[in-house]
Amino acid sequence: MTRAGKIGFIGGGNMAEAFIKGLLSRGVAPGDILASEPRADRREWMHSQYGIRVTPDNAELVAECATIVLATKPQIVEKVLAGIVSAFDEDKLLISILAGISTATLENLLGGEPRVVRSMPNTPALVGAGAAGICPGQFTTPEDLQRARELFEMVGIAVEVDETQMDAVTGLSGSGPAFVYTFIEALADGGVQEGLRRDIAQELAVQTVLGAAKLLKESGEHPALLRDKVCSPAGATINAIRVLEERGLRSTIMETVSAGTRRSKELGDKT
After folding, report:
1. What CATH number does the domain located at 2-163 have?
2. From CA 85, how far away is CA 1, in angstroms rounded?
3. pTM metric for this prediction
4. Which architecture characterizes domain 176-268 according to CATH?
5. Domain layout of the chain by residue ranges
6. Fewer beta carbons below 10 Å: N end or C end of the chain?
């Protein structure tokens, strides 16, 4: 990444921190990373934790960096871009991780022919296990897209999708960790209900989800085939699966993803 110059992060939240950790773990020098953050206490903490320079000035960051990751809240995108437009030029690449904000919106706010990549990562990037969708803007080069892909692959996986699918990526993998955490919590609660100690129930629930996901990924088999291998005739598992089907778990999860997708679209419509 740094062969193309410094990389800067507008916004010093969890996702920016995940990428900074990923860059540093791959040998990028702290001096090649810059972040901007309005809160003084957060600036001081990030500097002491990672050794990078952190500024309150977004325009200063843009002037210094060749690649800029926009990691603020989508509701303030107009204000943020208005403050950096004078420092942004055709030599810079903007990678946005803002939910619902289209490349066309970003391009219009920046003016001219800005090079923009839209993305949607998720919070497991904090432990190097993120999942991100990416798509190019109309002025983006293949080299720009590759640069963005390399960034996200430092903290997980990256898949290229058409921009019309980005809201669905938000609803699935962007919001998905929250759904999984809710499932793990409920799984552990079920164990407590049946007499397990809370710490034991949670440890078993976390490892069960982690192990099932790893087996699914490494085997390459369809989830239904792996599920069937657990369901012995007249056994405990198939009896429990019947309850999931009766209570509509499958349709509930599908509608949950749809709800997240709809909200992502609404965020974009408000800008």
Report:
1. 3.40.50.720
2. 23
3. 0.87
4. Orthogonal Bundle (1.10)
5. 2-163, 176-268
6. C
